[in-house]
Queue: 3 jobs
Job 1
Amino acid sequence: MTTKKHISLEELQVPSWIERNQSTIRQMKLYIHTFRRNSSAMLGLGIVIVFLITAAIGPWVVPYPEDAQGTIHLEIKLLPPSAAHWFGTDEVGDDVLTRVIIGARVSLQIGLIVTGIAILIGVPLGLIAGLVGGRTDEVIMRFTDVFLSVPGLILAIAIVGALGPGIQNAMLALSLVWWPGYVRLVQAKTLSLKNSIYVDAARSMGASNMRIVFVHILPNCSSPIVVKASMDMGLAILGAASLGFLGLGAQPPFPEWGAMISYGRNYLPDWWWYSFFPGLCIFLTVLGFNLMGDGLRDILDPRSRE
Amino acid sequence: MLNFFLRRSIFMFGTLFALLILTFVISHVAPGDPAVLAAGPDATKGMVEAVRKEYGLDKPLPLQFLIYTGNILQGDFGHSIFSGREVADDLMRYFPATFELVVFSIFIAVLLGVPLGVLSAVKKNTWIDHFIRIFSASGVGVPMFWLGMMLQLYFGLHLGWLPLGGQLAIMTDPPAPITHLLIIDSLLRLQFDVALEALQHILLPAVTLCFPALASIIRVNRAEMLETLNEDYITNSKAQGISTLRIVGLYALRNAMLPTLAMIGLRFGWMLGGTVLVESVFDFPGVGLYAVQTAVSSDFEPIMAVTLLLGFFFMVANFIVDILYSLLDPRLQGK
């Protein structure tokens, strides 16, 4: 009579998740270690985290939630910063702090949407150009060059001019001028990866084109894309604020930082707080994303430094 | 060299033509119907149709494009819907101011940026280096329009040293035009007081405009200098007893200048884009302010003309940089 022998997991020596992913974990630890030693990158990360938290919990913590969409109480207009209104009030008596905090949420949305659309358009085009090569590559890259041949802000203004001012059109215009950078980046990376030995090896083992793209090429492009996306978050926010400032983006009373500066400008210099604080927020946010992106580049993509 | 020059020129004109298609598509195919915009908000259907005929917008698109291209080749950029003026005349009037502003600004950026980058690299990890690096890091994030406003407040209002905006005081008569560049003209006409006044007016906008470019020139130059200073030939020169000034200024800087030059070319385009912000803040009468004023009212022909013009100048700048680059580094001519 035979008894079924129980085999425990240890006896089978199935490696645990930690053991299986040891090299990845070690690499992540190295990344974290390098990043933490870089003080400016940590400062950037800190600013970005504060920005993200502000954007996430903003509507629930602002002192005067109804001021975000522009209620009017003229009896308290243009008050200087005080305990009740830390950043003062604007020309219709809205709390500037409230509007700046809600503005963080608006800016985060703008950054994510613009960068997201740019990646969705740019990365596939870059992959196609790099992989297919030949005439397709030529057509896509020349098309990209045209967009890069005009200063981005000018082209965005032209597009907004044709579509009409407004926050949605401004975001659309910025997305339409933002994608070419990703095409250049991914195309160059794909070209160099396409002929690498491990892609040849995968191909000789019968891997399909799809598998090569998604398993071998795209993951290796991801580092520079992450770095660029991190920087672009800040720059897209700056771009939208610029359009808002020019009166081509968000329209008041929408709590967008650039539009707030544009209106606060009329109340300078006596009521400086109205435009000063939104400007400071733009500055810190863009700086934060930039420093963070710089730090990410140092660990993920050290060879491509300027 | 000539071959490279020719290929590069053909490429430039090809891109310019493609840009023409792009502005055509934006202005004629975009959802905002130009005829409706031109006729104004209160126009009846009949008026819109009349405008459509007048502008030739009822013709098939390819034909419209041919007419559009033909007009632009003849220097006819259409006219502003609101003022009714010829766009070409407006551009002639506003562009010299922008050109002067950008050139002045790039001079400041290079004259300050290169020495600061070198200084930062030579004094690596001292307080001078840290200070310069913080300065250049903040240059990337600072919103240009906000910086301009703050400078305007401080130097214009608080200290009263510099004018708040404009190109000249209202009471001052500009010199009779020769080159249409205000500072150059007033110097040529020997009106030095006017030249000085124009310089005072252009200083704050130019400093504001150059700030991001200055920051990246410092960064690139510092990084390149650090790399170059570690090369064997520099160590060798040191061992031979050549003076530090000669090593840094002559041997290292020349090699570090190549990427810096590329950065200047790239930044030139950003500056052209930045003019819309700076000119708006300082009421500086250039094409940037013109573009914004017309874009707000969806006056599309002027905006497209400005886009073409600034695109053209960006291409020319890149062209010059590429040629300079290939002169400095002949290996690139083969590519």
Job 2
Amino acid sequence: MNAHRSIVVALALAVSVSAPCLRAALAQEAEVPPPQRWSFAGPFGLYDPEQLQRGFKVYREVCSTCHSLKLLAFRNLADPGGPGFTEAQAEAIAAGFQVTDGPNDQGQMFQRPGRLADHFPPPFPNDQAARAALGGALPPDMSVLAKARGYERGFPWFIVDAFTQYQEEGPDYIHAILNGYENPPAGFTLPPGAEYNKYFPGHALGMPKPLSDGQVEYTDGTPTTVDQYGRDVAAFLAWASEPKLDERKRLGFQVFVYLIVLIGLLYFTKKRIWHAVKHHPELTEPRPPTEYRRS
Amino acid sequence: MSGHSIYEPQSSFMQWLERRLPVASLAYSSFIAYPTPRNLNYWWTFGGILSFMLGVQIITGIVLAMHYTPHVDFAFNSVETIMRDVNYGWLLRYLHANGASFFFVAVYAHIARGMYYGSCKEPREVLWILGVILFLLMVVTGFMGYVLPWGQMSFWAATVITNLFSAFPVVGDPIVTWLWGGYAVGNPTLNRFYSLHYLLPFVIAGVVVLHVWALHMVGQNNPTGVEPKTEKDTVAFTPYATAKDAFFIGLFCLFLAWFVFYIPNYLGHSDNYIPANPSQTPTHIVPEWYYLPFYAILRAIPSKLLGVIALGGSIVLLAFLPWLDTSRVRSASYRPLYRQFLLVFFVVVIGLGYLGSKPPEGGYVIAGRILTAYYFAFLLIILPLLGLFEKTKPLPNSISEAVLREGIPIGASAPPPSSGGRA
């Protein structure tokens, strides 16, 4: 018993030694992005097509200058569970982009207006061209950006998240970054070409502040603030990275109903079968079906 | 255990088949008439869950392989194509990725049950060793599967883990080059990992057959650790064990569905949605959660070579558990001291898992060393000594007696069977 107690003491010691270290580590990290309300959060949350359309407008007018969206095709804009454009609208959007095709019969590559089947053309022909044009910074592709970004949730939140179904770290982070530009605090030396962002790990962000109030026109009366732009474009990028979310949650609900009914039936089946063993053991003699005979 | 029913074909076709290939009687005696202790609790359903999960992983994996491209330039995008353009591709991939995690949830529960009830002891040593081999195969298969999406964590996990072999003097570096198929993790590495990731599940399935065969030779252990003595101590596998397994597999599926449909990326790392980039190292390279305890052991040892040996030893030692544990009593229910040390061991493994996810600095290192010390002390010192000094509780004479003690009459005179007989 003494040995057991000393193990408990050792465990307690281990925890107490690591706790201050944890706090110190947290203090050095970037600020935690404030959680936003997302229409697509929770077990029944789905994308809001109007928000995705606004977010797409922000992407097209602002982000797409530097950021590619290679994994998305124009046809996806008309997919169910997406921004809800009609096929004609998606075609019109595609036609507004110039896509490189070829080689043609003369062996030349050529430019033509985009079609539904085309993917979003990248703003730069390759990474080196992007770096050359942007002073060395490489803007990441945005296709899965909302799933590729996040922040350390830490104990106990990472356990709580499994129950609350919090999956929106990426959109929260993107919204926070767009709203996180500040003047650097005294004593902070920014490397040349970088801007201070309180939510970016290390704080020196290569991307200049991309959005300002009133920059993108909304026709539905939604406020044209950086806060709102950030939320809309983060929602759009969440859809771009997880376009089957609506389908997934709808199927998930059906699977849950099916499984719960099935588990109920299996439980009562099991209970009935075991009833005899627990209360009337003489009934457990196997009753031979047609194919079998008791030896 | 004698006297359970045997298969006798009645129809002329089954009689004809039985004389040529007695597969029906094999299936009957293995999965229907097989006597199973009547007092098994729900911890015994994880064997069935594991077989079920192996099936899920193989079926989803085969379909995923039809759409995946094992090439460094296309792997990442082909996975995204599966997510976007393949019918129910998102479901297949999320089932497969989360299924791997749940495979490990089940195997850890299965191992913990074996340790708690002394299932590794005589005469089940070979059964246990086959289990450790299965676990090792799962670890290797899971690791290779994690590399296939070719994200940042895939690439850097492959780099870190294969580099472990470089700790060995003289042979280390040639082994690493041989594993990589080149001088860095690259296309040959991805190709061979893909090939092996497809092969190993079938090796696992083969060893599972041996594992089940060995199980059917010696029979199942049970919560008392006392062998069944009479027919009263056992019930037929079908319908009793199958009904219980089916119910618990259903619950396990619900648990899995929660992750697959609602938090599919909870167990993954966001960095793995960034395409692999050999020139950019992530801030923290962490393996999948199910390797974290072993990762913590690796990092707890200051010397790289000793760390690698400790990592390997922490798993290989489990194979020697039947001999490290010197007690003649199997079940922890009758071993008060062992029970406490074992529960602490389980907490220590979970603690190591937490530390494995943290950067190796400051207090985390010290805590990791204390917990690693306990891990090995438990297996190498506490277990052998406990068997010699521990005063165990009196064992029941039989399973039936143990069940009777819990207040359920066994073989007592029962009322005549009424129609139905519901609870």
Job 3
Amino acid sequence: MGCGRVGAELAALFDREGQEVTILDIDPDSFGQLPLDFKGSRVVGNGIDQDVLRRVGLAEADAFVAVTPGDNRNVMASQMAKHVFGVPRVVCRIFDPIRQELYHNLGLVTVSPTKEVARLLKEALERAGESAGGEG
Amino acid sequence: MYIIIVGGGKVGYYLAKELVEDGHEVLVIEKEAAKCQQIADELGDIVLRGDGCEGMTLDRAGTGRADLFISVTGDDEDNLVACQVAKNKFNVRRTVARINNPKNEAIFKQLGIDTTVSSTALILANIEQELPSHPLIPLLTIKGSGLEIVEAKVPSYSAMVGKRVGELLLPQQCLITVIIDEEGVPRVPTNDTQLRAGDEVVAVCRRESEDALRAVLTAPARETE
């Protein structure tokens, strides 16, 4: 759910692996981000509407991931996927680290790009310092 | 009581106004500066600018001592998260969420929201008995025969809930062909099949008896009380 940069990239990765992928977005123009050879289905619709989720066959899905720009949309859709449709694997992107921690404690599998990217940048900066030191 | 309201739009504003008049301690949390200013000008110093889904804002609002937490923004997902944060991070005893999509009622309950209010559902409930296109849906017209296949949902208030198919006073040339229960399981009914609230009834009937069929299925049980 969510065909932004991350959603499109992730969909393409699974598609190339040969998985059956459906990507959902409220904006039909967003699908332009998908590679030309993407074989999965593209569905226009609101991912926090149960009727839409039912229509895309969420009840039969093995996995669901929510990567819209809105933390709350991701949280609501993921909880519906998990608790209403019984999807076995659900992952939710939450930018806000405080909300990420809360929903992690409530049993959702969550990823906070804010925390992860900050950590990666810090590590990269530290490594960059080491190699610069080595050269000097 | 100390009552926190998330969302300073029209609903939040009038709700705050009424609750202040009733003598409650009220705090409105609103993101937009202009709305905050308007509430402060008209209702006094009872507004906090911020995101009602954020832990820090709710902490500053003193959510831990709130007796009641009401989220009435225009977005269901924001109301859900605000109430879940209040409930799970600040242990607010009672949370109320406004919902736009009436179908979200069940999932909000399941996710721990104590009360949901849906203006859509309230309006629907009020017009349901007067609106002819609801709840009878024409599925198919059988060409040249004057017959139609229609579908109708048996509302929970219907006098027919609990009645057997054989007891229904159906119009002439009308036959109930399939009954689909709330779990989606279809049955071909006999005269002894009992109708339940939420059943989808598929019937063949003459176009002119559509109204009569709808009346049979949806007449409220009120008179018998």
